[in-house]
Amino acid sequence: MAGEMAAAGGRDGILRVVLRQQEWITLVVRLALAVILGMAGYAKFSEAEGLQKVAVSSYRILPQGMVAPVAFGLPVLEMALAALILLGFATRAMAISVGLLFVVFIAGIISVWARGLSIDCGCFGGGGLVAKGQTHYLREIFRDLGFFVLAAWLMVFPRGKLALDRWLGL
Amino acid sequence: MSKAARQRSARERLAEERKRQAQKQQRARRLMISLSGLVIVALAVVITVYFVNKKDPNAYTGALAPTTRQSDGAILAAKPGAKAPKLELFEDFQCPICHEFENSSGSTIKRLAAEGKVNVLYYPFWLFKQQTDPIRGNSQRAANAALCAPADKWIPYHDAIYKHQPAEGSKGFSNKDLIGWAKDLGFDTPQFEQCVNGNQKQSQIDSMTNYAEQARKVTGTPTVFLNGQSLDLNSTLLNAKNLEKAILAAPPAALSTSAPSTPPSTATSPSATPKK
Fold first, then answer.
1. Same domain, residue pair B81 and B30
2. How far apart are CA B272 and CA B137, in angstroms?
């Protein structure tokens, strides 16, 4: 049926199909975002504490005293957001949080780039200084922009299939 | 208005009122769920940070193994006569991960060396020679001062230098500070000051750097060899428990494979000559 309509209505038809399937799409987006965030968080979480701190301090943005809390807190933040998004609990609030997080990440990378530092973003673990010419800032920014789009979809369409929100009557 | 009309409008009002009530409830529910979601996430983060941060690595305060300077400038920390595996540390004082390595595993290494369970060779060198200032100069001054220090003060001085490691990109390790920390440790002498201010150990730094990069193929720091085997940073170097396990499992090794076969100098003065 979906195919029929798309063929019949052109662009409007596709839009209508997308909207009709919106709750399924939201489910898929939730799964994707949860996997991405969960992986990013776990990769950092499972690293040695020293490496986590170096990844954060290499941005040279936070004062010394804030490096450790952020280094230890960020992986858990990502994993907790991933878990709740997977469950579909408070989807819109979680999506907004994730969106803000990606805005912060993108701003951080731009700031590092603008100051001429050579680091790895440490987005999926790792991080720290790299040799000049070994940086991938543009790629990292576009990747985060892509993730931001997923979060934005959930902000606009938080209502989806197989969500705890539905079960709780939202 | 007729009676019937009045009744109907009352019914409508009632229905509207009910609808409004339901919407209000729905809004309250949505708010509750959103808030509890945010609270769950915040709690998870705060609890983790609190517990991980509290887990303070208890610094080793026990006796230290005697330290002596090898002919090539490396510093040996070993219990006399200990038949133990050999741990070789290649470090740059400006390297942030070396600092983390020191924080997470320094105590374990000191303890095992004092107990005669490992013989440690420290190779401070100038990894950041190719970098731009201030990283380059920081690294050079620290290495020079460390080589100027008498061998028996190596460990406390080494710790003091790391403790004051400047943030990457800012200037630090000034000669004045390097001398000040020596003063704090009670070994500041005119010779030491001359050695620091005159960058007198440059040739030794160069030969040490050459040795690290050419002979041992060290490309980054910290690089640590246990009986000649390079140890993994994430799983072993920054994980004191695993490092201890690896050291205790390693067989004893002869001490003089890297340095030319001169016996370790027992002098505590900074009198070593460059290897080349």
1. no
2. 23
Same domain, B40 and B76: no
Residue B130 near chain A (CB below 8 Å): no
Question: Hey, is the C-beta of B229 within 8 angstroms of any chain A C-beta?
Answer: no
**Shared domain check, B176 and B108:** yes
Give the B window 29-68 contacts with A, CB below 8 Å: 29-30, 33-38, 40-41, 44-46, 48-49, 52-53
Residues facing residue B121 across a β-bridge: B76, B88
- For chain A, domain boundaries: 2-160
- Asked whether residue B141 falls in the same domain as residue B198, the answer is yes
pTM above 0.90, yes or no: no
Q: pLDDT at position B4, please?
A: 79
Task: Let me know whether B72 and B115 are in one domain.
Answer: yes
Q: Which residue has the tokens 């708010």?
A: B31
Per-residue pLDDT tens for B174-192? 999 999 999 999 999 999 9
Domain range spanning residue B115? 67-249
Tell me whether residue B276 is in a domain: no
pLDDT in tens, chain B (276 residues): 677 788 888 888 999 999 999 999 999 999 999 999 999 999 999 999 988 876 555 678 889 999 999 888 899 999 998 899 999 999 999 998 899 899 889 999 999 999 999 999 999 999 988 888 898 999 999 999 999 999 999 999 999 999 999 987 788 999 999 999 999 999 999 999 999 999 999 999 999 999 999 999 998 889 999 999 999 888 889 888 899 999 999 999 887 644 433 344 433 333 333 333
Specify the pLDDT at position A117: 87
Has residue B223 been placed in a domain? yes
CATH value at residue B209: 3.40.30.10
Query: What total number of domains does chain B contain?
Result: 2
Using an 8 Å CB-CB cutoff, list chain B residues near A92: 34
